[in-house]
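Model it.
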Amino acid sequence: MPQQVEETTLAASTGGDQKRELARRNVARVFLQKHLFDNLPHDARDWELVRRVLQCIDFTRPVSFGPQPTVPPRLVALRSAMLGAGFFVEPDGTTPSQQVDREAPYMRYFAVAGDAAIPRYLIPRMRKELT
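Modeled.
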């Protein structure tokens, strides 16, 4: 099995051992570099944003990627001056949700702050559509 596929599988599995945490950190970093910068020239890439996003992820919990399986059809956008657009949570029934791009690559993770029980989604393509 190729290294990246093996790490991605390990990252999505349950458990909080050091090997899984390292795999989660590695595949999250690769995902962010690939999808946040999407054809931007090197000097236009915001490496500080990658660092901020990585600091928000709880690497003791599973981190998974798609577009398969697809994200829920509607998500609630999170607003953050530090992170910008493209971050979502599942609807709670009280906060207005919006339709999202279900075919776009995404990262599903749990945050270290806030309601840690609720999975969060980063859909980089939605960053471009919302800004």
